[in-house]
Amino acid sequence: MSDEGNPQQAPTAHKLQTPIGMHDILPDDHEFFTFIKKVVRHRARQCGFRRITTPILEATEVFQRGIGDATDIVDKEMYTFTDKGDRSMTLKPEGTAGVVRSYIEHGMKELPQPVQLYYIEPHFRYDKPQKGRYRQFWQFGIEIIGETDPALDAQIIDLANRINEDLGIAHLFQIQINNIGCPKCRTKYKEELVNFYIGKERSLCENCQDRLHKNPLRLLDCKAEDCRILAELAPKFEQYRCPTCVEFHTKLKGYLDELKIEYVENPKLVRGLDYYTGTVFEFWDKTEGAQNAIGGGGRYDGLTELMGGQPTPAVGYAAGLERIIGHMHKEGIKVPSKDDLHIFVAQLGDDAKKKCLTLLNQLRERGIKAVGALGKGSMKAQMRLADKFKVPYTLIMGITEVREGVVIVRNMQKGQQRPVPFDEVVEEVVKLIGEENLDKYSPGELLY
To answer: Domain 343-434 falls in which CATH fold?
Structure first.
């Protein structure tokens, strides 16, 4: 039997979707992203921070040196590949290492110190996707490089807290602080910590068994039940802090008290990156604790030297935008939207369409957000579309209106309409919308 009358069925096309752990930022989501970015920019500029953007792709060595080979990020979570030049490259998993690389490369040591920088960028980690945790995620970060003073640490914590207040979520979090010491006193503590855990390896989870000799401080913040019990019994770091670190931490707490910032001292808080020294802090969810923290930071006085620069003290903070937005949704917080349209322009006929193009430009240049249906739809179909856009007013032009030089202005809520001369319709719409509601734009103004 011939196959001519029974052609083989074409294979079903594979459904294309976002990669696992990554997500589209849809228009409604972007309203929250835009709002957060504006808050961060405003608060950062108030404090003299300037914006920096480092490449999404860096030499792998930037993160191996900066974050540390013994960290979970470098060991398990980085997106690393060899490029066509046989170089090992990595999608950046965090922002600080790249900022420090830039500080060294561009000679920022010669600028007035400290250098204050902020960023708002996407980052990448091959992590297990879960609530508020993605493989591509956005963070904003603030860094102060070139000075060591507990007052700067307090200012970083205060700035992060003010941003949370502006976003309406500060009351959801508890600020956890600790001081993990300088390299000298921390080395002694690590030795005592390892000695305590030797012989107890069978009680540790698989990750902590690996951390014991690579990164023993991380044993203290493991969430596994048996590991938490051992961490409670382990030596406490405050017994090993040198006098200089004790004084620094005492001053920091005094500054936070002066700023009326509530905090909790947490001796088990260590952070997950090797470059931290001295002050560390995190914003923990009051109900879910570290499992739903939105951000953290601390002092990294040795990182610049570790990456090939001169010894340079620094302190910083970073927070996840997706996690922040999740908390804003949970609180039912609404953000201002500038996407709502003012005017829909409906037209019928070629001459009306020509006039419509000119009118749309005139409206937009005046600060009126306007859209027109330039297809072949009937007037009835265009008015249904205007309803869907939820515009307060629709401008209507047909053959008769073009001939008479007028535009019909329709109040969509009241269903009332009246003709207005074409040359006067833009100013008439401005009166109806209100000068204060216009989306004004000047190419010369600072937009970024």
So the answer is: Rossmann fold (3.40.50)
